[in-house]
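Review form for a predicted model. The reviewer records the input and the model, then writes brief findings.
Reviewer: anonymous (R2)
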Amino acid sequence: MFRFIHTADLHLDSPLKAMRKRNADIADSVGIATRAAFERIVGKAIEERVDALLISGDLYDGTTKDIRTGIFLADCVRRLSQADVHTVIILGNHDAQSVVKPPFPTTRLLTVFAAKPDTIRFEAAEVAIHGASFRDRQVPDDMTDRYPAPIEGWTNIGMLHTSLGGFSGHDSYAPTTPDRLADRGYDYWALGHVHKHQIVAEQGAGRPWIIYPGIPQGRDMGETGMGRAILATVTGPNRIEIEAFEVSPILLERVSVDLSDARSFSDIEEAVPSMAVAIVDAGPHAHAIIRLVLSIPARLIPIVQNRQDTLWELLQTNVQARGPGVAVEKIDCVPTEGDTSPGPALDAGTLKELLALVEADAAADPDLVAGLKKDFDGLFSKLPRDLRDDERIRTPVTGETDAGLAAWLDSVTVEAAVALGGGTAELTERDM
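Model under review:
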């Protein structure tokens, strides 16, 4: 029996800066998340006493400038070697031979394939592993024609960093097809490059396993879900059983909440406790980073966007009370399905919120007022001379001080709100 673990796209020490900004309590965990994921894989390999750990490219996230990354990787390989686990590596586009040279330890239980396809043999188990590294980042051609022929009667495993026929969000590297991989006569293709875990093909009827294990630890909200690696067992000639196991120390996830019945920002604030419950339920792991997606009426989206910090703080407080290891990374808003309204409805509640926003954010913001003054100056210069000479227009629009313009902006918002409401909305300072 021969057992191996298949992983790829470690991207060790990839910066997750955006994930660290919002929550100091989990910042340290985020900072070492890629290492922690790989340590789980190494620990699993040692615990399960596998024969080999296969890493199908992209150990690093481009050229590493921190010597500690290389030392960490070398230490992991050393630990595997001491446990009689053979580490087998191909280099991908991020860690190609011309990009970075990892400082691997000297051990007989380490194979880093060169750019020319080659084979290593595990004689006792009659298992052959075939692979090739990227010499340069750009590999526009199919590499599989150059891979060695399978060893007859043995279990043959191929390692390849490839985009296959193309995946959304992934550039094309070493393109090929599942049919071409099947034609090589191998039993398992250990792929890398695509960060989403997926079984492209199952073994059977003369076809091999073709598997992307996915990125062990997501780095942004384009890589949500729990990262995995593959534990495979060769149970006989041309027979391999697989099992996926979870490795991400931090879960990245999106949570959608439908607030299509909300009429005002106050309604959204009142829904915060139920949002917090949905978020915590989605992140039951020790650490989770959640992006909340609110489905709300289109007219409320600008208001929520302007008050996002306030809403985020309220939401995070509620989340922390229920799940201390869960952080809200961001709040996104999408219009309620079927809602094509272009903007705020002219109801009293919306007008009050609009006026409150202007009072709180616009008239009191010197940068905004200065920007408006610059825009007004440009518009004023394009008016006909008779309008430019009209004191009623010239004085407020070209006011000599920003304070004067701010006061004018403050006053016209009330007049505009009442006018838009057909003269029916009587707004007072107490109402806002």
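Findings: Confidence is low (pLDDT under 50) at residues 344-348, 417-432.
Further findings: The chain has 14 helices and 15 strands.
Recommendation: see findings above.
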